[in-house]
Here is the input.
Amino acid sequence: MSPANANSIRIMPSIFGAKRLIPAWSIFLLLIVISSSLPAQDSTKQSVQLVLDSGGKANPSFERVVYTNPHADKKDPQLNAQLKKKRTWLIGGANVLGYGGTMIGLYHSWYKNYPQSKFHSFNDWREWKQVDKVGHLYSAYIESYGSMKMWQWTGMDRKKRIWIGGMSGAVYQTVIEVLDGFSTGWGWSWGDFSANMLGSGALVAQELAWDEQRIKLKFSFHKKNYQDPELNQRSDKLFGNSLAERMLKDYNGQTYWASANLKSFFKNSRLPDWLSVSVGYGAEGLFGGTENIGKDENGNIIFNRPDIKRYRQWFLAPDIDLTKIKTNKKGLKFLFTVLSAFKFPTPSLEYGNGRFRLHALHF
Here is the structure.
């Protein structure tokens, strides 16, 4: 999604489009918090566990079978029908309440304040050097990851939890695209929709092929400060002047990464479990959707800098997969899971604007 007049400062874009800032991050954090706080399953025993009642006798109604089938998927808990049903209802309710509440809040805080129209589409593919599209891909991926982890806890069959949980991110984002389609100033974006599907598809494909995420999508940010006061002023108006606003809205400071865990590809090697290598994508010189021109609400030009070159950036850097660091501390596991959505700061090699550059530390 992008505004019809992408160069106007009235509408501020973000990494998910102006309206995706709140739902994308809130949904991801909600899913990760719930999935990380759920009790872990015993994946090593192959036995039948019976819960004793107050009289010391085994209660069959609470019987839980843990991996009695040697060919079962040991990532998924094996539960009896009663417990599986309870957990399914719990997770289903959490999804409906969490996402439903987010969408209701979004509509009342944003969409209802702008003119509505018949459903229509809008082609924003050429805007922002497609950094916003990569943001959609990333957003759908991390939402799908959190959702899949939640459904895994219910004991759902492997392929079901992969497809239902894995495609959740695309569904979450598509609902927002539909709302965009009824908004006069925006529209349904086939580019955004395609990126959403690719993000969820990347997670599903890896789970089906490898039963793990060997290549994780990540995000990093560094705040841009320019020697030219006009560029700083333009950035403040277009992206906001606080660090939080800039991180979520300034395409010039964002980098999206595909981080591949090396040990997962070379199982018999002596490489550390946590070592990864990442390829990143970003852009520079973006002070408008398709060109560096800004207009006010009346269409008057208030910013015009065609001298600033707009170009793509490609990065190569080592990375750390925090989820591969072994710990029995639940708090650390939760922290590592959340932080795994972000690229660990390391040196990087950049190629952009026809030349290579080395960064001592890339955020």
